[in-house]
Specification:
CATH architecture of the largest domain: 2-Layer Sandwich
Radius of gyration: 19 Å
Largest sheet: 4 strands, antiparallel
Strand content: 15-25%
Shape: elongated
Helix content: 25-40%
Number of strands: 4
Mean pLDDT: 76
Distance between the termini: 34 Å
Order of helices and strands: EHEEHHHHE
């Protein structure tokens, strides 16, 4: 039975990041993730890391599931700058889309002849995107949807990732019982000695 995701008590505090161990499996726990799929997954994981402001501390992609140790920092006080918003949007969206948002921001900043323009309009533009940033749920949801849709668009469309589970890291040694082949080092964040890299 699937358990409810537990978020730490301080998840909404503005001073302390939260760290979660996230696990997700392929439907029916089938061994569907080959080298090509794992590379695509890793690419999407890094894209969502850059977009969301979350930080992947460690990961391991196996042939039927993956683990991610994810740090979710609070949103900076006062939000993010226009430039940072556009940079993050550029990670997941095309140039035309980002340029359209940049034009909206410029128009809002120039609106009314005020020093900073129409701050309410600028905040509305930011609020369309920032709720998906600095969020465990949105990081995992975006990553899994993008990865699953990519799988459907290829000839090997048999993998659909499900059963996501996240829990707070409670100080358990993460290397305990971890065994892998050196040849699989590409799909995890450990170096060849089994230490974090």
């Amino acid at each position: 039975m699937r358990k409810k995701r537990w978020l730490v008590d301080w998840a909404d505090l503005e001073t302390k990041p939260a760290i979660y161990h996230c696990l997700s499996r392929v439907v029916n726990r089938e061994f569907r993730l080959g080298d090509e799929e794992r590379e695509v997954f890793r690419m999407f994981m890094r894209m969502y890391e850059n977009f969301s402001g979350c930080r992947v501390l460690s990961y391991c992609v196996m042939s039927n599931h993956f683990h991610i140790l994810l740090e979710v920092p609070p949103m900076p006080e006062g939000g993010i700058s226009d430039g940072e918003l556009l940079r993050r949007l550029g990670v997941l969206n095309g140039e035309k889309f980002v340029k359209g948002i940049a034009d909206e921001l410029v128009a809002a900043r120039c609106e009314g002849g005020l020093v900073n323009g129409n701050e309410v309009r600028v905040r509305e533009i930011h609020d369309r995107f920032t709720p998906r940033m600095h969020s465990l749920s949105h990081f995992m949801q975006g990553l899994l949807i993008r990865f699953t849709l990519q799988g459907v668009s290829t000839t090997r469309c048999h993998y659909k990732v499900s059963t996501t589970r996240c829990q707070r890291n409670c100080g358990i040694p993460l290397t305990a019982g971890v065994h892998y082949k050196v040849s699989e080092k590409l799909w995890n964040s450990f170096d060849c000695r089994g230490e974090f890299g």
